[in-house]
């Protein structure tokens, strides 16, 4: 069964005050992780056997073995270390080749990574610092939609990045996304 994952965080940005939960199709909620600071990027491998997860302040992407039938996660391992100069890892998606795409808060970019090697494959600069997430869309899942934020930017910062807070689209990016899970589907 396809379950629904969700993370919490402190309203005052206190570290490790959040958790990660799974809502199953019977509407039961189970805590899967504690001591989370900022739940952000989540993605599953095409075969649904690996769950990828970002807790932003750790500057890492971790992988878990994922049991689709029970939504159990196990065997936590760090697969990607994000250099701090690249900006904080935020939202994430996966392409049909199994590569991870990561948005970088205060990093002015989207990056593409190989989760098997931990190597950065591509960096796409953007005209805003606070890149928040990315997702494939369009008729053939070949367009990359990228969100950004302008919260917390001062007037000088806003003047230097007038597109902050915009939605960006890169048409026909050269990669294809995976169809989204539908809650409750097999």
Automatic annotation (TrEMBL):
Its EC number is 3.1.1.17. InterPro entries: 6-blade_b-propeller_TolB-like, Regucalcin, SGL, SMP-30. Binds 1 divalent metal cation per subunit. GO terms for biological process: L-ascorbic acid biosynthetic process. One of its GO terms (molecular function) is gluconolactonase activity. GO terms for cellular component: cytoplasm. SUPFAM superfamilies: Calcium-dependent phosphotriesterase (SSF63829). It catalyses: D-glucono-1,5-lactone + H2O = D-gluconate + H(+). Residues 6-149 form the SMP-30/Gluconolactonase/LRE-like region domain. It is found in: Cytoplasm. A divalent metal cation binds at residues 40, 90. It comes from the Bacteria. The keyword Calcium applies. Keywords: Calcium, Cytoplasm, Hydrolase, Metal-binding, Zinc. The active site is at 90 (proton donor/acceptor). Its cofactor is Mg(2+); Zn(2+); Mn(2+); Ca(2+). It is an enzyme of class 3 (hydrolase). Belongs to the SMP-30/CGR1 family. PANTHER family: REGUCALCIN. This is Regucalcin. The lineage of its organism: Bacteria, Pseudomonadati, Bacteroidota, Sphingobacteriia, Sphingobacteriales.
């Amino acid at each position: 069964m396809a379950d629904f994952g969700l993370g919490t965080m402190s309203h005052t940005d206190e570290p490790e005050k959040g958790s990660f939960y799974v809502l199953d199709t019977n509407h039961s909620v189970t805590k899967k992780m504690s001591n989370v600071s900022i739940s952000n990027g989540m993605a599953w491998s095409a075969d649904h056997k690996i769950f990828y997860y970002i807790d932003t302040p750790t500057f890492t992407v971790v992988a878990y073995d994922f049991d689709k039938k029970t939504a159990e996660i196990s065997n936590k391992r760090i697969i990607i270390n994000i250099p701090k100069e690249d900006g904080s890892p935020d939202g994430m998606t996966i392409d049909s080749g199994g590569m991870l795409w990561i948005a970088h808060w205060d990093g002015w970019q989207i990056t593409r990574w190989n989760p098997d090697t931990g190597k950065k494959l591509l960096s796409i600069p953007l005209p805003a610092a606070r890149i928040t997430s990315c997702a494939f869309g369009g008729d053939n899942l070949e367009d990359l939609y990228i969100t950004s934020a302008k919260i917390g930017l001062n007037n000088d910062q806003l003047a230097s990045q007038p597109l902050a807070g915009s939605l960006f689209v890169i048409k026909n990016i050269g990669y294809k996304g995976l169809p989204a899970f539908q809650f409750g589907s097999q």
